[in-house]
Each structure stands twice: as structure tokens, then as C-alpha cells.
Amino acid sequence: MAAQKINEAHEHIAKAEKCLKTSLTKWKPDYDSAASEYAKAAVCFKNAKQYEQAKDAYLKEAEYHTENKTLFHAAKAIEQAGMMMKVSHGVNTEMPEAIQYIEKACMMYMENGTPDTAAMALDRAGKLIEPINLEKAVDLYQKAAGVFENEDRLRQAVELLGKASRLLVRLKRLDEAAVALQKEKNMYKEIENFPMCFKKTTAQVLVHLHRGDFVAADKCVRESYSLPGYSGSEDCIAMETLLQGYDEQDEDQVYRVCNSPLLKYMDNDYAKLAISLRVPGGGGKKKKATAPPEGGASGAPAAAEEEDDYEGGLC
């Protein structure tokens, strides 16, 4: 089967070369037909799992579509060439080159006046590179979000911004994450998705507290009081309680909020911020019960053990 498909591919290439020849009666190469034959050859190579040859055929298809000034089809072919590299080499050093092809295709989509297709391709590229290069994935998601935003497709834009924000948190680029989250929140407000604004406020508070900026965290909550339904909501009460505990260095209160279902079941990157949050001057663990032991020898070791756990604890 594979051998048959490879033979078919070579037949299509031969036809393509014939289309490019000129003569006394044919002054111009037939770029359209040549591109079509290379596209068929690429599919045959792909079905035969000859991905490197499929990539080359797609690039030839793109070349002749470009000669024919059909940029959209050229971009599609270049994007497919990038996908062939991904399939052929998997997650390794070849992936950046695959992403370069897809980015080139996106530029051509933009030139052709099809920005939505460009944004979707950037999103796909981000997903491909994310397992091996988070920084590049952030860049691609932000570019895709920017394209959608320019087209006033805010729902698609904010979804991609959310991907970028989570990766920035994972990369510990918290200053940038704080900016991205504010932009997300503003977009959700613009499309009147207020429950998501509440969630983004919670994420903002966690990011700002990890940055050591209590004032910024408190400001996020205060600004959110203007959102319909926020004041008195579960999210609002949780953040007020968290900020109070953090400000008063009440480690037990902070622990309870950060380990509540509301925060534990957030997106994984934010949930990790919650469970790793520490009170300044705290010992880093949940406090034991504060009631005194009921005397006798049995109480003494427990007290000593607690002192060891929180040596140099709360101020």
C-alpha cells in the first residue's frame, strides 16, 4: 500500500513538472495545475507516512500558489508543511522549524485578508510548541489574541489571553501575568461575563500576593465591588477573608481559604498558587489547634513537636 502511494506521488510530481514546461504554443507555466499536482503528491506521501517528502511537496505547492498569486492556498500549504515536520519528528529540536513555517503561513493569511484563519493557526502553533517551549507558546497565544481583538472577536481573544496568563504564572513571570489578567478581566467585563470577572479577580489576588504586593491585591478586590453581583458573592467573601488573614498574619485563616474548594478547583496553575501561598513571617504550615493540652506527660511531647514545626513562626 505504501509503495503504491509513493508511486502515485511521483506520478503527480511528473505531471506537475510537465505543467511547468513552456513551448511555442504555451508561453507561461501552468502554476495552478502544478500546485494542484504537488498537493496530490503531498497527500500520497502523507498516506505512505513519508512525511519529509510530504513536507517538500507541500512547500512546492506553496511556491507555485505564490507564483499564481493565490496567497491563501500558499499559506495553507506552508502550514501543512509545518504540520508534517511535527508528525515526522515529534517533540524534539525540529519543532521550532515547524513553528516557523506556521508563523510564515499566518503572515500570509494576514496579507490575504483572512486574519481569523491566521489567529487559529497561531493557536494551533501554540499548542504544538507548549510541551517544549512555554515562552514561545505565550508569544503565539498573545499574538493570536491580538489578531482576534483587532477583529472585535473578544470571546476568542480572551480565551487565548487566558492560556497566555496561565503559562506566565507557570513560568513565574508574575508581573506580566498580573498585566495579562487585568486585560482578561477588562475583556470579560466588556462582554458582560461577570462570573468570569470574579474568577479573574481571585487569580489577580493570588498573583499579587505571590508578588508581595498586598496593596495591589486589595485594590483588585475593591475595584471589583463595582461589578454587578460581586459584593457579597462567594468569590468576594473568600478574597476578603484571605486578605484579612494575610494582613493580620493569621496563617490558619489563610490556609482555610486557600484550601477551600473555590480555590482548589481553579485552573491548575492558579490552584498551585493558592496552596503554596505563605503568610509573611509564618511557618509555612497550617496551625494546630490552639487549645492547651490536658496536662500530664502525654501533652508535653505534642507541645514540643508543635514548637519544632513553627520555630521562627508568626511575627
UniProtKB/TrEMBL annotation:
Its main location: Golgi. It comes from the Eukaryota. It is a peripheral membrane protein. Residues 304-315 have a biased composition (Acidic residues). It holds the Pfam family SNAP. GO terms for biological process: intracellular protein transport; vesicle-mediated transport. GO terms for molecular function: soluble NSF attachment protein activity; syntaxin binding. Residues 290-303 have a biased composition (Low complexity). Residues 164-191 form a coiled coil. It is found in: Golgi apparatus; Membrane. Residues 281-315 are annotated as: Disordered. Keywords: Coiled coil, ER-Golgi transport, Golgi apparatus, Membrane, Protein transport, Transport. InterPro entries: NSF_attach (IPR000744), TPR-like_helical_dom_sf (IPR011990). GO terms for cellular component: Golgi apparatus; SNARE complex; vacuolar membrane. Interacts with RAB11FIP5. Interacts with VTI1A. Belongs to the SNAP family. Required for vesicular transport between the endoplasmic reticulum and the Golgi apparatus. PANTHER family: GAMMA-SOLUBLE NSF ATTACHMENT PROTEIN, SOLUBLE NSF ATTACHMENT PROTEIN SNAP. This is Gamma-soluble NSF attachment protein. It comes from Mastacembelus armatus. The lineage of its organism: Eukaryota, Metazoa, Chordata, Craniata, Vertebrata.
